[in-house]
Amino acid sequence: MKSKMLEDLSKITLINKKGVALALCFSLAFVLPSCKRKKLTEVVEVPLPSAEEKVTIGRPDDVTADEGQFALTKLPYEYNALMPSIDILTMEVHYSKHYLTYTNNLNKLVAADATLTDLPIEDILKKCDGSNADLKNNAGGYYNHSFFWEGMAAKSGGEPKDTLATVIAKDFGSFENFKNQFSDAAEKQFGSGWAWLVLDKTGKLQVTSTPNQDNPLMPKQTVPGTPLLNLDVWEHAYYLDYQYKRKKYIDNFFKIINWKKVSERYEEAITKK
């Protein structure tokens, strides 16, 4: 009589019964000393997958900041209005979580510093020289996002018209040159930050980028001036939909730029020169 063990692996059969999957597996046949074959069947209980968790998306108007000097800028569209350039979940999280946090933090900081009471956000930014990192980050985060929301719109994009179109062509050579420079600044900004179109102190349009929550209104910036357009390249602004493909996110941003708003900003900035 041979004592060698023979293993016979049978096909796995799954039977769904009363919410439990029964796996009939590994039927083992052994050559026993009596030379009789005995079939062993193992029954394993495998829990069925639970139902997918539903994600509830609120509305922008439902979001309010804590009481303080600064309120949230009202989002001028619904969370899904900028799709497919920016998906609904990214917009909801960006506005109701990240932006809200910057706003609440800024209000706490302002309430604790009498020198900041009743100052407009632009004047607070002019004080952000880096000596108070919390103020710089949260004041910048509040302003940059407030500015960002209004620079986009549904069914927009294309190219600017009238005066702004003429000035862009004069200062950059063409709209295409501007687009390439702006895209390049956004793509090459290392880590988190912003890309900007700025009217500098000489009255010329320039493209620049800033790290973290810095912006061109703050001291010690590479290109100081009046912001006209910005793009958020922090990962929370695009990662849910684009992952590492920042360039694709930048390309799609040009489909939702609110050039009417940007033109209004330019006209206002020129009158203050």
The percent range for helix content is 25-40%
DSSP summary: helix tally? 8
Q: What percent of residues are in strands?
A: 15-25%
Radius of gyration: 29 Å
Number of strands: 6
Envelope shape: globular
Q: Mind describing the biggest β-sheet?
A: 3 strands, antiparallel
Cα-to-Cα separation, first versus last residue: 105 Å
Uncertain regions: pLDDT < 50 for 5+ in a row? 1-44
- How would you classify the helix and strand content by structural class? alpha+beta
Kindly report the average pLDDT value: 86
- Please list the strands of the largest sheet in the order they lie side by side: 1-2-3
Task: Describe the 3D structure.
- This protein is α+β, with helices and mostly antiparallel strands and 273 residues long.
- 36% of the residues lie in helices and 19% in strands.
- The protein is built from 8 helices and 6 strands; from the N terminus they run βββαααααβββααα.
- The protein has helices at 88-111, 121-125, 133-150, 162-172, 175-188, 239-242, 246-253, 259-271; strands at 13-17, 20-31, 37-47, 193-200, 205-211, 225-232.
- The strands form 2 sheets. A 3-stranded antiparallel β-sheet has the order 1-2-3, with no helix packed on it.
- Strand 1 and strand 2 form a beta hairpin.
- Helix 1 (88-111) packs across helix 3.
- The longest helix is centred in the middle third of the chain and has 24 residues, at 88-111.
- The chain is globular and about 50 Å long.
- The N and C termini lie far apart (105 Å).
- Residues 1-44 have low confidence and may be disordered.
